[in-house]
């Protein structure tokens, strides 16, 4: 048996501060049309795919910050993506900054939507693992202020029945946490979609090289795929953006953890792969047959505490 | 600052059915002496390091099965390891099959001890993630009957203050489960010791190649190291044992997930590396600063259920 889904990764090169949303959407549309022409049924775009990665900048004016946020999805500037998806019969994952009102309060999330080939939203996700700091770190050339500009996602780590399988969504830093993949794995996920903006420099002031950061990015995607017997599509915004480097290395990873497609550039670039969702079965039914082999009675501290409790001093 | 620990991986080639415990201990002693001569303070040996990997055989006689088990640790045949460790001032990890009496009942575990440079047991572990089946699978050439011959470990996934750091223990299949590493990571682990016997063929009758199984083994160790900012020493029993192949690829992995030492043979082979335990700090204090970045409120199903709960059918 085979359950084929042709999937595309729509990597973006940099979006500069001066670039407009209209320009970004035009680039996304070009990638979408190319993907549809190659027969893909789903294209995954990066995190925060409509603007520059603004959390690298320290801003104090909320009005200035809010210029990077979407008040509607779709809104006037993103509607062409939904219309074109419907016209072409292709779905997409799009990362964006969401400004919404919940319980009469303005909320801001690092969000993504999964849109079906009918142009309707099939799933929504808000980033759970916000990296970086709330406060300015003056020693750093480039900030990472997601904890300042966003609230933590409040939609859990959901999966959706879509595209003939079970599809999960994560955003950037989420992929470094095995809990992200495992929570989806425990819901039977067969394809994890991830958009990211990962700095080419060490965001914590250490000496991690760009090559090491690419290795970390791939390692996290590959381990998540293997250990949950799922396909993974992880898609970068890449290149030099506002003078700051972003890694590329968008990848499609099979349920054995092997990279089957990998971006060669740091520009707008399309990867396409025929993902047989039934390839997830061997792992899910054998090595990672969770019901037979997991031992949750020994995992308690994973959910009981956030931080480290070291053993007593001798 | 540096907190150096010179660690050795003492990979074993095959131990055949006809080989005696005395022969196995002689080989372990030779590796231990070589490690001590090279200045190592700890040597990690494989899982079930005293006999062939007997769960590949279906046996019905409990007396026959029990011949593979140790009733004491140390016992008469393993005491030379403890004596020599003390004489040389080197600690060791040893995997073995444990037969013991708890609550007036005979219990059998896939176990490991961590022995200090004083020749005393510093930590003990019993394998939590037993792979394979309880029953004979007639279609398979080689069985994997750990679930038949052992009970599930009942000592949790502990870590120990030893060798100037925080040391954890896991056994073989444990390493494929991110929960194993995370439970130790949440206890501040800086060095995870793992012994394994991993088949070179697909133990579930699929078509996984030996190369793929080596890749899986390394991927699991590397992801566990990176995502918990810990050193990992994973040590194989390797080669053709009783006609069945075992992968080698013993590795020492740094806290960035990079393989820094890797076995080149499927024979008795020693790897030695200077592990700076302070290299764990950058990851533990930044990217994987658990207290700041983990979101356990979204991880509930990891401990609430063992198996998969798929989303409702549409």
Question: What's the quick description here?
Answer:
With 314 residues, chain A is of the alpha/beta class. Chain A has helices spanning 21-37, 62-66, 79-88, 146-149, 178-185, 210-228, 280-285, 290-293, 300-304; strands at 4-11, 42-44, 91-102, 105-115, 121-126, 159-162, 165-171, 191-196, 231-236, 239-241, 244-246, 251-253, 259-262, 269-276.
Overview of this structure, please?
2 copies of one chain form a homodimer. Chain A has 9 helices and 14 strands. Chain A has 314 residues and is α/β, with parallel strands linked by helices. Chain A has a single domain, classed as Nitrilase/N-carbamoyl-D-aminoacid amidohydrolase, CATH 3.60.110.10. In chain A, the strands form 3 sheets. A 6-stranded mixed β-sheet of chain A has the order 5-4-3-2-1-14. Chain A has a 6-stranded mixed β-sheet with strand order 6-7-8-9-12-13, with helices on one face. A two-stranded antiparallel ribbon of chain A has the order 10-11. In chain A, strand 4 and strand 5 (121-126) form a beta hairpin. In chain A, helix 5 (178-185) packs parallel to helix 6 (210-228). The radius of gyration of chain A is 19 Å and the shape is globular. The model of chain A has no long low-confidence stretch (mean pLDDT 97).
Overview features:
27% strand, alpha/beta, 6-stranded mixed beta sheet, globular, Nitrilase/N-carbamoyl-D-aminoacid amidohydrolase, 25% helix, 14 strands, 314 residues
């Amino acid at each position: 048996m085979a359950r084929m889904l042709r999937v595309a990764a729509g990597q973006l090169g940099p979006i500069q501060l001066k670039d407009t949303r209209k320009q970004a959407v035009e680039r996304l549309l070009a990638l979408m049309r190319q993907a549809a022409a190659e027969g893909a049924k789903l294209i995954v775009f990066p995190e925060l795919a409509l603007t520059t990665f603004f959390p690298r900048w320290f801003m104090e004016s909320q009005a200035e910050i809010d210029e990077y946020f979407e008040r509607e999805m779709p809104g006037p500037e993103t509607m062409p993506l939904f219309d074109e998806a419907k016209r072409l019969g292709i779905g997409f994952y799009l990362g964006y900054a969401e400004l919404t009102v919940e319980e009469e309060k303005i909320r801001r999330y690092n969000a993504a939507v999964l849109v079906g080939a009918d142009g309707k939203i099939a799933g929504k996700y808000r980033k759970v693992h916000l990296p970086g700091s709330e406060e300015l770190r003056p020693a750093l050339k480039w900030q990472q202020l997601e904890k300042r500009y966003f609230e933590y996602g409040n939609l859990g780590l959901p999966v959706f029945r879509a595209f003939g399988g079970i599809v999960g969504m994560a955003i950037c830093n989420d992929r470094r946490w095995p809990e992200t993949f495992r929570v989806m794995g425990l819901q039977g996920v067969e394809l994890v979609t991830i958009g990211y903006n990962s700095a080419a420099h060490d965001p914590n002031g250490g000496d991690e090289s760009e090559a090491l950061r690419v290795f970390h990015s791939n390692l996290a995607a590959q381990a998540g795929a293997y250990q949950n017997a799922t396909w993974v599509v992880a898609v970068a915004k890449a290149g030099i953006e506002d003078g700051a480097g972003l890694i590329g290395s968008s990848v499609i990873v099979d349920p054995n953890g092997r990279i089957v497609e990998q971006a060669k550039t740091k520009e707008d670039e399309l990867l396409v792969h025929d993902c047989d969702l039934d390839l997830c079965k061997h792992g899910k039914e054998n090595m990672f047959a969770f019901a037979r082999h997991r031992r949750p009675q020994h995992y308690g501290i994973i959910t009981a505490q956030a931080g480290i409790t070291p053993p007593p001093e001798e």
